[in-house]
Amino acid sequence: MQRALAPDPVPDAPHLGVHDLSWGPKGAPDILHDLSFALQRDQVLAVCGPNGAGKSTLLRLIYRYLTPRLGQVLLSGVDLHALPRRETARRVAAVVQEQPTDFALTVREMVSLGRLPHRDGLSGASAHDAEIVAAALRQLDLTRFAETRFDRLSGGERQRVMIARALAQEPELLVLDEPTNHLDIRHQLELLALLRQLGLTVVLTLHDLTLAAEFADRLLVLAGGRKLAEGSPAEILTPETIAHAFNVSARIDRSGGTPRFSFHL
Hints:
This protein is an alpha/beta fold. Helix content is about 30%, strand content about 25%. The longest helix is centred in the middle third of the chain and has 14 residues, at about 155-170. This is ABC transporter ATP-binding protein. Pfam families: ABC_tran (PF00005).
């Protein structure tokens, strides 16, 4: 059967465009309201805000787990919901907070699942697939675990496997929900540095404002399901915005290359 053709990208459109986006559970009020922003190719956007602000909901709309009640999510000007699902999986990869723990697969087999959107029909893995999987394992420092069962890894190791699986998809947009959870400090820094070097458009949620300020090109701050602020970290991370979003007082030390934050009730 011939594969449906995807709509053509729109010239000069932002790589990721979110327009007037709203969503809520069926029969209930919206929990995300009238959200709009644009992200250029290869930029890193950190989404910040308190618990319940709508961060994970926004990501689920971007990687098409949820369908907007109103508004659109556009990739190069094309509505993601107008794309065939396989095409979406080739272009967008997601790493969520919920990790599978009951797969009796090796790390290599888990990462190889990222190649499924690129296979036609019942075709097996190719030599090219194997090369991409091996490269993803190297990037996440997982080669030594390649033949280890996934369910025998620590939480941080499993997190790195899921990120490697996403990279094996060869996406153009990578969406990550709190990717530094379960990682020690070194692996947090290595992961965020890697995300900046990939040449991908990246949207991720982060609780750590210092990491967000250091590694993100742009910040989006949500509060109560609405956009509170958007812009560069230097523009957005002010005591006033932090107080409004998190209901705390903040002091910001800008004496170094990256701002450092202290918080007070």
